[in-house]
Design a protein that fits this description.
InterPro entries: AceGlu_kinase-like_sf (IPR036393), Ald_DH/histidinol_DH (IPR016161), Ald_DH_C (IPR016163), Ald_DH_N (IPR016162), Aldehyde_DH_dom (IPR015590), Asp/Glu/Uridylate_kinase (IPR001048), G-glutamylP_reductase_CS (IPR020593), G5K_ProBA (IPR041744). The structure is a single chain. By secondary structure, the protein is of the alpha/beta class. A hairpin with a 7-residue loop joins strand 23 and strand 24. Helices cover about 35% and strands about 15% of the residues. Strands 5-6-4-3-7-9-10-8 form an eight-stranded mixed sheet, with helices on both faces. Strands 19-20-18-17-21-22 form a six-stranded parallel sheet, with helices on both faces.
Amino acid sequence: MFRAALSPLVRSPGWCFVSPPHVTAAISRLYLPSRRLRNESIRCWSNIPFITVPLSRAHGKSFAHRSELKHAKRIVVKLGSAVVTRGDECGLALGRLASIVEQVSMLQNQGREMMIVTSGAVAFGKQRLRHEILLSQSVRQALHSGQSQLKDMAIPVLEARACAAAGQSGLMALYEAMFTQYSICAAQILVTNLDFHDEQKRRNLNGTLHELLRMNIVPIINTNDAVVPPPEPNSDLQGVNVISVKDNDSLAARLAVEMKTDLLIVLSDVEGLFDSPPGSDDAKLIDIFYPGDQQSVTFGTKSRVGMGGMEAKVKAALWALQGGTSVVIANGTHPKISGHVITDIVEGKKVGTFFSEVKPAGPTVEQQAEMARAGGRTLAALQPEQRAEIIYRLADLLTDQREEILLANKKDLEEAENKGRLALPLLKRLSLSTSKLNSLAIGLRQIAASSQDSVGRVIRRTRIAKDLDLEQVTVPIGVLLVIFESRPDCLPQVSALAIASGNGLLLKGGKEAAHSNQILHHLTQEALSIHGVRDAVQLVNTREEVEDLCRLDKLIDLIIPRGSSQLVRNIQRAAKGIPVMGHSEGICHVYVDTDASVEKVTRIIRDSKCEYPAACNALETLLIHRDLLRTPLFDQIIDMLRVEQVKIHAGPKFASYLTFSPSEVKSLRIEYGDLECCIEVVDSVQEAVEHIHKYGSSHTDVIITENEKTAEFFLQHVDSACVFWNASTRFSDGYRFGLGAEVGISTSRIHARGPVGIEGLLTTKWLLRGDNHVVSDFSEHGSMKYLHESLPLPQRNAN
């Protein structure tokens, strides 16, 4: 439909367009190039031709990354026929359309300029005409024919242009009614091919659209299907280097570039662009599509309705992209996402296929995950001694290359201090030192020494029947995604645990530690290279949002967050079908019993609260037995906390005992992460246990007492990952437990719990070795019987 407006060499004689003068317009002089441009600017990207559009747009080029889409001011939303119509192709999908209108209205009310290119007039008209045909049947004829014959009465084939004429007004009335609910006015514009040929009409259309946008009105645009000729063969793909208006995809692309829009959203009935036809076994959704990539794509058939297929959408998208408009093709029909697909795209979330002219130097995160899986499988196949050798090598590199590591860390610290974006506790976490690196190296050597029989260890053997033996053996989980904040020392720790357990690893560190993470990852890959498994550990450096990473359920098997409680909660909320190992809060308690030792109480409380108050295993709530109030022991506790400058918050019961009390807590379920704590009073060890269960986070809880019976009651009844007697909460740590390091502390009740070392990164599989065994032999009249005998386990490696 755009073909004749672009070049005198290309004319489409069959089109006849009628459009009222007050709504007709011109799609920019960009589409009426000079004679020199006509002859010289025709180019081809692979097998999809297009015409080069001069980049004279005021707002510059298209967005390079999804994260920039939130800055889009002017947006065109193209609704394909499959999105607007019902599955029977007769009538509109009203619920889906209402959801789209709601999202467009939300963005419009945010101050954006929204335009809609819609299909649906033919389907709506078909519904109306079918209804009219049935009603026009003579009642007498219907009665004479009989009810059964009436049901089978044939409906004549309806001509599409007549359907469009009958449906256009109803479609627009529906849009107006829906937008009115959000106090937004909509205006209809019907365009024809002549509107893009005639310079005056093009100017009129351009002016009309700009005036509507200025008045905060949403233009709803469609081709005037009531007067269009039957569809023609796709001459665009037969050597003609132009884009033509023969479907709403090309219409949307032309309007988007003409109106200098920032973003074109093309909604269809598929998730986006696939590298092969959707539904085929090997089809993979392409997250980002770059000009030139179409050679690697095989196009399938078009959607169930509409004029264009995916090939037409890609052609239109590339053409709009060249004109400076960013494009996303996504699914507008899926019931789980259609209610927020448009707003998700504008927020920069990973939805559909994003078209970008900027191709990153490195692999995509999907490619990195696939590399990590392949590398992890090779890693798991190595001998235990080889995996241990890699970890020992990494430990050596941490000390040998400490000057380079500390120099990179210094850059991170300076940038963080200059920007002032990190609190003091987080700056402490970000900082590396020679002693920290030495401790890291010691921990890594512990992991290497303890990992000799971690993968492939037989944990159960059963003789099912004669010559039929079953084994349960440990295997890696698969691909781990570890997300961590302000903790560069986490990278070598987690890498060593993944290597020891044979897992592939994706690491996503905070940008505040970018320089430190980069060199530590480089050293990790250098260590992996000694046995050719460099790709097993990947550092995600792309601008992927954490929420997008959490959606890669086909590529990632387990997510382990290391950071603030807010980060953990966000990841747990965002994870789509991927288990999350971790804890959202570290609300740790210390209960001081009546039989507590005076010497032990202040030492344990001071260490639990003051040694590292930002840690997740630091004391947050101090429970004191009521009988200890107004005793010398209680006074010593308060004096110590004041000396350490710990701000005290009073629990409700504690406050009731005091004439002048500290500030009463707003909640007993607070993780302060600083030199602050809550003090509350309980009447017994049973009440202490109940308080912990009600307000705790199942992380780490401590009792201080000399009464063994009371201590054992506490140890057995507190349902937390770590429960201690007369020891600091700070012992809840993989290194202090002798695990070498930890990937985190889990408070979940499935799989691993507490500090998670190598064992927590393993699962099992079953190996059955038989000799021509079949189940039918074990039937009532079969020749074999089940034995189910337990067999001895092989001796573990003594080293």
